[in-house]
Amino acid sequence: MNTIKNQQFAKLLKALSGDIRLNIISYLASGEKCVCHIYNYFKLSQNLVSHHLGILRESGLIKDRKEGKWVYYSLNERNIEKVTLFLQEIVQKKRKEEDSC
């Protein structure tokens, strides 16, 4: 894989490296959520949740839309799929190496 692609995936994987962010991703898998529902669900401060949502949004794993005074978040399924395919490529490459020994 090329260096640019690896850098992009490193950014995505780094965004997934925290417990709170993984929990948010899992929660958003059931559909779009208002930020108020997210921080209430996890019983965390709005500032902390907003910080983690910002990291996930910046990485491209989630997207947001504003409706009135509320912000709604959902998974960016295209980038989630890219991460999944990237990890599957690694596993397949490892299996091929093991089969050739």
Structural description of this entry:
The chain is 68% helix and 14% strand. It has a three-stranded antiparallel beta sheet. The radius of gyration is 16 Å and the shape is elongated. The protein has 101 residues and is α+β, with helices and mostly antiparallel strands. Helix 3 (35-42) packs across helix 4 (46-59).
SSE blueprint:
Elements: H1 3-15, H2 19-28, E1 33-34, H3 35-42, H4 46-59, E2 62-67, E3 70-75, H5 77-100
Antiparallel strand pairs: 1-3, 2-3
Helix pairs in contact: 3-4
The biggest sheet, with number of strands, parallel, antiparallel or mixed sense and barrel status, is:
3 strands, antiparallel
Total count of strands: 3
Q: What is the mean pLDDT?
A: 90
H/I helix tally: 5
Bin the strand percentage. Answer: 5-15%
Which structural class should the secondary elements be placed in?
Answer: alpha+beta
What's the shape? elongated
Q: C-alpha Rg, in Å?
A: 16 Å
- Proportion in helices: 55-70%
Low-confidence stretches: none
Which series of helices and strands comes N to C?
Answer: HHEHHEEH
End-to-end separation in angstroms reads 22 Å
Strand order across the biggest sheet?
1-3-2
